[in-house]
Amino acid sequence: MTTTTCILVGAPVDSGKNRRGCLMGPDAYRTAGLAEALGNLGHAVRDMGNLTPAPAELHPEMPGHVYAATQTAGWTATLIEAAQAAMAEGVPIFLGGDHSLSLGSVAGVAAHAAANDRPQFVLWLDAHSDFHTPQTSSSGNLHGTPLGYVTGRDGFHGFPEVKHPVPQENICILGLRSVDLAEREALQQSDIRYHDMRAIDEQGIATPLAAFLDDVAAVGGALHVSLDVDFIDPSFAPAVGTTVPGGATIREAHLVMEMISDSGLMTSLDLVELNPFLDERGRTAQVMVDLAASALGRRVFDRPTRAFS
């Protein structure tokens, strides 16, 4: 297994929706032993602590129903800068925080890839497509907009300019099971690859993932993986404010992560939407830590079986 330097970037973003709690996520991952799990795999681990949002001003053209747009714009600016800096030092792991943090993390890693003449790819593991703009989102929650933002859709007034949009054909979404009408129409007209849980039930999760990873490898692409807690079925990972039944099983989620590890392609990772306030004795945080470890090389044979008497 290739060892690397993992850069833990705490992003306690809690402005992407109006249900509080994700700000506790970064410290929950630390408490659940993320650094130790990665260190046990032989990786060097550097924890950069928790970021804070940059100052920002409300743009007059931002729709009034959008929740905490100014704060999220500030977070986006901070994360773009932090992502570029961390990419220069290793594999950044962004500890969220709600999924609006990916407006900044993905835009930042894409800028780094462009500076190094590499195409940026994104694997989006989520029950939702997050392809809204501020204008199309009926809830006004910006955690539903990151793929809209990083692909260069219009309407993000007051947010940093996306200088290196991710090509739609370089994005693959796995695990869909809750998509709003406006998103569905935009998604169907896009070049984004998307696979809902019915498709996964019919053909398995490995087939579409393998095809996507082959395409990333063929052009020497940089791969950003964004793992939302609600990718996983809530029976296994309940600590998320947007629970949608019928998600990936633990076996499917680990298969995805082990295939990512086998590919050697992942250059950055988001762990998002963990709300420890809704967790059961740290159960979901531990699941997410285990999945991150699988993406970075842990295998079932590395996990000792404990006998209790």
Q: Helices and strands in order, then pairings?
A:
Elements: E1 5-11, H1 25-31, H2 34-40, E2 44-50, H3 69-87, E3 91-96, H4 101-115, E4 120-125, H5 146-150, E5 171-176, H6 181-188, E6 193-196, H7 197-203, H8 206-218, E7 222-228, H9 250-263, E8 266-272, H10 283-295
Parallel strand pairs: 1-2, 1-3, 3-8, 4-5, 4-7, 5-6, 7-8
Count of structural domains? 1
Number of DSSP helical runs: 10
Q: Structural class, judged by helices and strands? A: alpha/beta
Oligomer: single chain
Rg calc: 18 Å
* N-to-C span: 35 Å
- The CATH architecture can be named as 3-Layer(aba) Sandwich
The residue fraction in helices comes out at 25-40%
Question: How many beta-strand runs?
Answer: 8
* Low-confidence runs: none
CATH homologous superfamily assignment: Ureohydrolase domain
Output the CATH topology.
Arginase, Chain A
Mean pLDDT: 95
In terms of DSSP E residues, the strand content is: 15-25%
Helix-strand topology string: EHHEHEHEHEHEHHEHEH
Shape: globular
Which sequence of strands runs across the widest sheet?
Answer: 2-1-3-8-7-4-5-6
**Top-tier CATH class:** Alpha Beta
